[in-house]
Amino acid sequence: MIREHQHFFLAGEELPRLVEAVAAHGYRIAAHKLVDGNPVLSRIADAGDMPRGLVDARGPGTYEVRHAGGGAWFGITLGQDSWKRVLLPPDEELLAFSRQGKGFAVEPRSGQPGAPWAFVGMRPCDVAALARLDQVLLGGPYPDASYARRRPGLLVVAVECSAPGGTCFCAAAGAGPGLDDGYDLALNEVEGEGRHFFTVRPGSSRGREIIAGLDLGAASVEQAGLAREAVESARIAMAAKPGIAGLAPVLSAAHDHPHWQEVALRCLACGNCTMVCPTCFCHDLADSETLDGLHASRRRRWSSCFMEEFSYIHGGCIRSSVAARYRQWCSHKLAHWVKQFGVLGCVGCGRCVSFCPVGIDIAEEANAIANNPNLPGSNVGGTK
Amino acid sequence: MVITKKRREIEGIHTFWLEPRDGGEFHFDPGQFNMLYVFGAGEVPISISGDPGKPGRLVHTVRAVGKATQRLCALKTGESLGVRGPFGSAWPMAQLEGKNIVFVTSGLGLAPLRPAVYWLLNHRQRYGKATLIYGARNPRRLLYVDELRKWRGRFDLRVELAVGSADPTWDGNIGVVTSLVSKTFVEPGNTVALICSSERMMRAMVEQLNQAGLNDGDIYLSLERSIKCGLGLCGHCQLGPTFICKDGPVYRYDQVKGLLAQREL
Question: CA of A88, closest CA in chain B: separation in Å?
Answer without folding.
Answer: 12
